[in-house]
Structures are given as structure tokens and as C-alpha cells.
Amino acid sequence: MTAPVRLSVAAAASLLMMALVGCQTDGTDTTGGVVRTNEPSKGDVTSFGDAFDGLKTVSDVEYYASDQAVAEAKNQFRAENYGNAGALFFKATQLAPNDGGAWMGLAASCDRIHRFDLADRAYAKAFRLVGASPEYYNNVGYSYLLRGKLQDARTNFLKAYELAPNDPTVANNLKLLSSSVQNIER
């Protein structure tokens, strides 16, 4: 190595060391490990003299990191790009593990690419999050319909119908099931 190259490597190493030293704490952390937000205290005023009361703060906003991934995943699902939809729904479940809708979308995407083993795991997680909803039973019923397990599909469609008798999707799936039973091809 030439002298200028060694000097630049040494300078870069020194800068890195200073950055790392600046990140260390001195052990006098009085917050107890609590991360502070920019929430104003009661009675604080803005730089314009207004009170903060009534203003939306960060904690009031209903935005989740998975929102963008779920929106794009739904677009991919509607476009019948089930592999892409599954990947985006999986990303959403990693960003927000308690998002029941993302788990339902992941399960439905796995159904469409015939990865029923993955769909079953996603449905199990979704059930813990969304519970016994008509959407859940309808999706599980459709999963069984795709697998050719018509009796299991009927059981789940009927559970969905009991919870939402006026839901057109459930009614259509029951019609689809009855036509599947009548038109068996071997």
C-alpha cells in the first residue's frame, strides 16, 4: 500500500471509532429504557402560541408499517399475481405480526398457488387474530374447495353463512360448491 492509501484507511478507521464511541452510554440512563416520543406535555404551547390540546400527534395517527405492503398485495391478488401477492402479504406479516388481514391475505395467496401447507399455517395464525368471522370461515371453505375436500368446504361455508346470511360472497361460494358436487369430472 502506498502512503496516501494507508493514510486514508487510517482516517476512515479513526472516524468510525469516533462514531462508535459517540454511541456508547455512560450508564446514567434515567429513562429506564423507555423510548421518549415527541408527545407534548399538558399545557405546552406551539411556537405559534397555540396549545397542543386537540392537535393530532404521532400516537393518534392510525398508520401501520404494513399498510403499503397490504395495499400492494391486494392489487397483485386482484391482478391474479398470487405469488407476488403472497410475497407482499408475507412482508406485511413480518412488519405487523398482529395484522389479521395480512395473515388472511397470505393464506388466500398460498391457496391460489396450491401451497396448502403454508395456507393452513397462515389460517391458524389468522384465526388467533380475527377469530370466528364470516370472512375466515368463507376463506377456509374456499381453501377446502380448491383441495377437493367438498365436505370440509361445506362445513366452513355453512359456518360463514350462519354468521353472515346476507353476504353475497358466502352465497356465491355455496352455489359454487353445489355446482362442483353436480359436475364432477374424472
Per DSSP E runs of 2 or more residues, the count of β-strands stands at 0
The overall average pLDDT, rounded, is 76
**Measured on Cα atoms, how large is the radius of gyration?**
27 Å
- Helix-strand pattern, N to C? HHHHHHHH
Number of contiguous helices: 8
| Beta-strand proportion | under 5%
What would the principal axes of the Cα set say about the shape? Answer: globular
The major beta sheet can be summarized as: none
- Quote the distance from N terminus to C terminus: 74 Å
Q: Would you mind describing this structure in some detail?
A:
With 186 residues, the chain is an all-alpha fold. Helices cover 63% and strands 0% of the residues. It is built from eight helices and no strands. α4 runs parallel beside α6. The longest helix has 20 residues. The chain is globular and about 80 Å long. It starts with a helix and ends with a helix. About 15% of the residues have low confidence.
